[in-house]
Amino acid sequence: MQRHNLEHYNPPPDTGLSVIYADSCLLVLDKPSGLLSVPGRGEDKADCLISRAQKVYPDALTVHRLDMDTSGLVVMGRGPEMQRALSIAFMDRKVKKRYIAVVDGIVESNSGTVDLPLIIDWPNRPRQKVDFDEGKEAITHYRVILRDTGRNISRMELDPQTGRAHQLRMHMLHLESGHPILGDDIYAPPEAQAKADRLLLHASRLVLRHPVTFEEMEFEAPAPF
């Protein structure tokens, strides 16, 4: 189950954008699992969320990304000025993000924080690794919302304070005795991969200030799992 292997990129069919919000400044879209946020290398990887968005909104520009296998809320700026303003808000950690994840095993603590610095594992990229000397700060707050002892899984709310590559996958992998996200074909052992037919990670909530009116806006998209 090598879903992250882009040699066999097979995006979901284009059935139209799932638009959560649109105005003259920004778009909020619900990205399906299996679709790249931006084009990959090669013509066979040109189909992605931004290319689909630009067919409908030609001025749409990328602000941030979700991994191909992660679903959920993605913000785009309409035109370079809005793209820049929104990008700065993400970089300055002024955007609140929440994810829903289903992980292997029963998480014992009801809530807590994982604070483990991450860096790319170059010989094994795109894998990341924990590195206390050279890794970049990575912080995730978590809360258990359901424990299913029959299936030996836990449903989690994850609030990342930073936006490192694979941060949530890595932090769940290192939580307590290890709780990999189900369907994670990069880090999870085979039995946890086999419990789901996709990565069970979904960007469910975003709170940000409008780049022109500065009104606080909250967007939600329920997890499809």
Which class of secondary structure composition applies to the elements?
alpha+beta
Order of helices and strands: EEHEEHEEEEEEHHEE
- Give the C-alpha Rg: 17 Å
Strand content: 25-35%
Quaternary structure annotation: single chain
The number of helical runs is 4
Structure description:
The protein is α+β, with helices and mostly antiparallel strands. The protein has four helices and twelve strands, in the order ββαββαββββββααββ. Strands 1, 2, 3, 4, 5, 6, 9, 10, 11 and 12 form a ten-stranded mixed β-sheet that branches. The protein starts with 18 loop residues before the first strand and ends in a 5-residue tail after the last strand. The model has no long low-confidence stretch (mean pLDDT 95). This is Dual-specificity RNA pseudouridine synthase RluA.
How do you describe this structure in short?
The chain is of the alpha+beta class.
Tag the structure with descriptive keywords.
225 residues; 4 helices
List the helices and strands and how they pair.
Layout: E1 19-22, E2 26-31, H1 49-56, E3 60-62, E4 71-78, H2 80-91, E5 96-104, E6 111-115, E7 118-120, E8 128-130, E9 139-148, E10 153-160, H3 167-173, H4 190-193, E11 201-209, E12 216-220
Parallel strand pairs: 4-11
Antiparallel strand pairs: 1-2, 2-4, 3-4, 5-10, 5-11, 6-9, 7-8, 9-10, 11-12
